[in-house]
Amino acid sequence: MRSKQPTIWDIAIKLNVSISTVSRALRNAPDINPETKKAVLDLAHQLDYQPNTIATSLRKNKTDIIGVMVPEFVHAFFPSIILGIQEVANAAGYKVMVMQSGESLEIEKHNLQAMVSSRVDGLILAITRETNDYEHIISAQRKGLPIVFFNRVVDELQGSKVMVDDYKGAYIAVQHLIQTGCRRIAHLAGPENMTIGRNRLNGYLDALKAHQVPIEDELIMHCDFVDGRARACTQRLLTMENRPDALFAVNDPTAIEALICIRENGLSIPDDIALAGFSNAPHGAFVTPSLTSVVQPIHEIGGLAAQLLLRQIKAPQQFIPETHVLDTTLVIRQSTRAKPE
C-alpha cells in the first residue's frame, strides 16, 4: 500500500507554527526567523518532505517541464535527438517528459492528450508514419500549447520546424552512385505525406535527371518506415529480369534491411549492387560491408528544437515561427564502389 506523503500541514502541526511560516521557510523567504527556518528545514528533511509540484505548477501556471514525443526508440536517431534536447532544457532549468508513439496515430493522440493534461509548458514532436489527420495537434495548439516540429514535418501544420536538407542529402548520395558507374538506381522511399519522404524522393529524381539517367517508376518503392517492408521491396527488385545495380534508401534502417536481403540472395555489395542510406546510424559503420550514408547533425537538431521551444514559451506573443534547414554531408564507406580513375 502506498504510504501518505508528508505535507506542509504535517510540518506545521509538529512545530506548532502556521502553514504560511512553513511555506516561507521552505521558499527561503528573507522575513523568516533563522531558528524557525532551521527547524522547518530539519523536520522537512527528517520526514523526506517533497513539494507538491502539481499544486505549485497550478499556482504558477507553469510546470518547467517540456514534452518530447517521438515515433520510436528502436533505432538510435530519436534517442540521440532527445539527448540534444535534454542538454539545452536542463541547462535552462527544465525537465523533459518523453513519450513514444510506436508509429501509431492513435497512441500519438493519446500521448498528446496526456501531455496537455500534465500541463507541459511546450512540446517537441516528430509525427508517426500513420499521421495524416492533424486535428489533435491543431487542437493542442489552439489551447495555447507551443509545439516545435522536427525531422518528420508536414506543410499543413503551423509552427517552428527543424529539419535537414533532405533534398540535397538525397541528391549527393544518388550523384555519388552515378559517379561510380551505377545507371539503374532504385529508391526505397519514405511516406509521401511527410516532407522528408517527398524531399528525398525529389533529390533522387533530380540527380538522375541532371546526369541523364533514365527514371523508371518500377524502381521506386515506398517502404514507409514499416519494419520488414524494405526487405520485401528489395526482394522484388532483385527478382526483376533487369535488376538494379544500386539502391538508395530513405534511411539507414531501411538500407540495412536491404543489405541483409541482398546478402541472403548471394549477391555482393557493392560489386553486384551498390547501396547508400540516409541518417548515418551508428551501426551503419559496423555492418558488413559498412554503409555509405548521408550524415545529419543529430545533436544540433535536438538542441535547436529545444532552443526554439524555450524562446516560444518565454515570449509566446512576440514569437514568430521559424523553419531551420540544417546541412548534410555524405560519408562514403564500403557499400558503394570507388569512383573510376
From TrEMBL:
GO molecular-function terms, A-Z: DNA-binding transcription factor activity; transcription cis-regulatory region binding
Gene3D superfamilies tied to this protein: 3.40.50.2300, lambda repressor-like DNA-binding domains
CDD domains for this protein: HTH_LacI, PBP1_LacI_sugar_binding-like
Keyword Repeat tagged: no
Descriptive protein name: Transcriptional regulator, LacI family
PANTHER family found in the cross-reference section: HTH-TYPE TRANSCRIPTIONAL REGULATOR GALS, LACI-RELATED TRANSCRIPTIONAL REPRESSOR
Presence of keyword Transcription regulation: yes
Domain HTH lacI-type, first and last residues per copy: 6-60
Domain of life: Bacteria
Keywords from the UniProt entry: DNA-binding, Transcription, Transcription regulation
SUPFAM superfamilies recorded: lambda repressor-like DNA-binding domains, Periplasmic binding protein-like I
